Automatic annotation (TrEMBL):
Residues 319-668 form the Amidohydrolase-related domain. Residues 1-27 form the signal peptide. Keywords: Signal. This is Amidohydrolase family protein. Pfam families: Amidohydro_1. It comes from the Bacteria. One of its GO terms (molecular function) is hydrolase activity, acting on carbon-nitrogen (but not peptide) bonds.
Amino acid sequence: MIIRYSKKIKQLSKLSVLLFLAGCASKTSTKWENYTDEGTFLVYRRQSLIGEESYTLSANKDTITLSSLQGENERGRISGVQTNLLLTTNLTPISYENKRIRAEDTTNNLTVKVKADKIIVKEKFFDTVEHEKLDDFFPLHSNISAGAEMMLYYYCLEKNLKTVPTLPRNEVTITFKKKDTAVIKGEKIPLNRYVVTGINWGGRTIWTDESNKLIAVVKANTQIRELIRKGYEDAKQLFIDGNVEEEIAQLQQYTKEVNGDLSAVKALVGADLVDAVTDVTQKNMTVIIENGKIKTIGKKDEVEIPENAKVIDVSGKTLIPGLFDMHAHSNQVQWGPAYLAGGVTTIRDNGNELEFATAFRDEIAVNGAVGPEILLAGMTDGPGVKGNGIIRARSVEEAKEVVELYHSNGYKQIKIYTSVAPEIVEVLATEAHKRGMTVTGHVPIQARHAKKAVNLGMDMLSHRSRILTVLYSDKVTKNLKRAVYPTLSLNSITDERINDAIDFFLENKTVLDPTIALDVARSLEKGNALETIEPDAYRIAPELWEGKRFRAGLSAQKSKEGRETYIKSMEILGKFYKAGIPIVAGTDNVVPVFSLYLEIETYQKYGNMSAFEALKTATINPATAMGLGEQTGSLEVGKDADIAILDKNPLENITNIRTVSAVVSDGKYYNSNPLWKAADFKPKD
């Protein structure tokens, strides 16, 4: 009998042996035996259709095979993701493969193979790792396809698992929230709404039908995307609004957890103080805060502390104005506690979905939720596949409608993106200025250079490469690529050109937002950890690691060229700043929160700025640029009590700006560590 049994095993396929050893063959689900399915998900970025994913699902007696192909044209960048997933008919994973396909290369994002007694994981940027066999797990990463994600939810819901370990890291949780009704071609279709955590930073909102089939996903890893099953696109607004509702509910929970001190009167006693007005550090000071405003600043032994004050001992620390991030894209509420933890009390959101951005801003400003003050710049773009987002200005009429839409929703600025036609930029600027709004953004491709953009009415310009087109206004062509100028060109720029640019920007009172930290990160050599330039990168939420902490990197030569370019660029920008042109610090979300520090540090390191001058780019400069200089941006009596509390003085060394241990925002006092924990970041060691 033993011999006959051994012969039988030898006759089985490798897959059958695997199933036998895994103990899964006897647990076949009759639902999945010989099951077939196919479908398509429409892919939206900021509500604009950019691609689709088609999948096929087939099962035999023992296994289920899922294959999917997602294709995108995201602002002219064409790419795809190919996924193959093999499971048992009990939904136990056997193998998973996910590849990113671009014109120039194919990248294996993640490969997972289950063996008899171990699980082998190969992830991009990592060596192959062997894990012990797990009873329940699912292969998971932030680039998971909609088809594979659908199988994850089948796995959780059919096994009644609220939490599932995932590889290569973390775990996923799925929480039922409510029943929704989608109206599709007049038919009411019941859907189940869930919030899922462990895939992207914070969470995503998903909907399934009554059979647990995935219908829609709304997610964000610093940009919002909607994936909607074809046939359900009429319910897109339901999905957008449902995600906003769940995000705000999460923000309300964070607000309960972090317990900011609400005492109406506070006394910060014993700290040194850097007010951002002068470069002198005031020693051993006391600051009295009353109803969110700075009432008194003075020497510790000279200030009388009110009897009803909550006294907070800040001896040995340094107070500075709360920081600004002037180029944020805060597409999920986790930015709220994360920004405050890092001492950032005001951000300018430079492009977001209107529904989410306004709800996020209002929950903080009106309802007192935890988070920085949010100033909104409403993004608009022109026609074509290279356009960004759903709000477009392709005609004079549309331009007027865009400005009125954003103005009526309390936006401070209009943000121009790259595909807006010059004549439309002029209309947008004229209409914005009529309403007391200003105009910021990219130098549009058709405008060709910064001088033209400013002459069309733009008040502020973003990104180093686009700003420095001002130096080449007689030479720029629309064919220049992202890097814009080779190092040789920057090195050969004459003082005459630089002085002409300075005169032009000063005459037009143009404000510059270089996002130089983006260039620093993009110039990282392949194989180097991001910590070589951004020492706090290891602290970010694990779900952000793939896209933020681990980067593909450049060849040694390209990295050298990139570094030379941003160093020379910063030298020129430093001359602009010394001449009086306002520069404001912004990140464009390279590494959440921490890249603001990198931005400021780079200004000093390569822009010939003092620590005090660099600090002003994230304090009084942006406050003044946004018309808030009388309200915030410096530590002065009568101004808002927006204060970052540091362990060390940044005027002694600008890298000390990273030592934020507490913050006062809107008069509320918070310790940083609970805020970091709420945002799912590691506290400072």
